[in-house]
Amino acid sequence: MPEPRPPAPRPGSPQHPVRVAGSGDLAHLGPLEGRADAVFEPIFGALGWGAPQSGEARASEPGFLLVADDPPVGFVHVLLLDGAAHLEQLAVEPVLGRRGIGTALVEAACAEAGRRGHDAISLCTYADVPWNAPFYRRVGFEEVGDLAPFQAALRETERRLGLDRHGRRVVMERRLRR
Hints:
Layout: E1 18-20, H1 26-37, H2 41-44, H3 55-60, E2 63-68, E3 74-81, E4 84-92, H4 101-115, E5 120-126, H5 133-138, E6 142-143, H6 149-161, E7 169-175
Parallel strand pairs: 4-5
Antiparallel strand pairs: 1-2, 2-3, 3-4, 5-7, 6-7
Pfam families: Acetyltransf_1 (PF00583)
Keywords: Acyltransferase, Transferase
Region (Disordered): 1-26
């Protein structure tokens, strides 16, 4: 009788543990984001939104960075703006997609934002890209109708950067339990 297969690792399991990013992780984040962004090219063509922000630049902004694994195979960057938590970037190595790493990072970001006293976390994303708004809906985010001032400012920045030319952008929010 063949040996039973071990269960698939659960998000945040020892195979891809989520932790606070350290200084040694920062150099990996920009290139990782670039590889993750490349999955948009078959849908959008040339992206035109510039090079990814470096990990060092991300770490210098108010908020926090969490990574999965060592070296990182995914990261989430949460900004703290006007007293609110905003998920600025989620990136996972494309070859490791659909294995729960993105979900684990989102859940860890929500837990950390709640631990820091936030009642909600928001994000901006494409409404119709399967791994964008539909994914975030599955993990508890809902589309926002009335934008907070910081969300309206973020959307205006996205419009200026040309992100809207690739499709409808939405602001989503998830209520947090503290």
